[in-house]
């Protein structure tokens, strides 16, 4: 698995995983799916579903801490500004330091370059929010979010999956 | 028309003016149309269309001032917090004989204004993703410009929804 291969798949994920509608029930379904999967494998993680003005779902499993809250919301911040999944931004950075460039004027308490936040795109509207996971390796955080979104859209959990690392 | 009638009519405007989609192109079209309506009426407006994470359209007509931008900010914050038009709040307060938010509403007057002119962008099956806001004339008429442009865009007859 190379970064280039992952990037190609992630571009496909972002293109295909698009909603016709997305409401509070959709958010609950996605968030609770992630939380249940995390619990089933015994991992401490948090799952959040956000629109740009509010939190629609927040859940945590045992073993997660407030630092996961910070990571999740800062990853969502990155999606909010860049309109790409945060893991795609990580991979596109390549060998460059995983730091917000000073000239971007982005506060590290609000944004983080780390994988795990996936855009919620609605047909005819655009990106209205993001699903974020924190607690696993960032590639897995990303995949947990992607998988729950894919299931909610009626695809299988493995639809557009990244290959095993 | 009583205030109660107006409240019902504004609720009807909000119910009917629900969109199936709304993107950057829609914002430009509606913003431009509001500007045309204002020009034709000989009014100066500042016009703002935003999603909650970014501004999609802004235009300030000659005769407006920085104060209009502040009003837009505070009125659109009302829609963001309450997900209904800011004029609906003006009417509710009027109906209750109140001049503003109550202390225990926890609403900061510096951030949120209950004055007409900001209207929700509500998407069917999604919710309120942003606001269309106008400032330049009294709130009731700011509100009217937005609703008229939205009705035209949606192919809805504005006349029965017009506030006298």
Q: What is the domain total for the residues of chain A?
A: 1
CATH architecture of chain B: 2-Layer Sandwich
Helix content of chain B: 40-55%
Gyration radius of chain A (Cα, Å) is 15 Å
Query: Percentage of helical residues of chain A?
Result: 40-55%
Count of DSSP-assigned helices of chain A = 5
Fill in the keyword field for this structure.
heterodimer, A: alpha+beta, globular, B: 164 residues, alpha+beta, Beta-Lactamase, five-stranded mixed sheet
Describe this structure in words.
Chain A is of the alpha+beta class. Chain A has one domain (3-152): 2-Layer Sandwich (Beta-Lactamase). Chain A is built from five helices and five strands. In chain A, helix 2 (24-40) packs across helix 5 (138-152). Chain B is α+β, with helices and mostly antiparallel strands. In chain B, helix 1 (3-16) packs antiparallel against helix 4 (86-95). The A-B interface holds A 20-24, 51-53, 80-81, 122-126, 128 and B 20-24, 51-53, 80, 123-129.
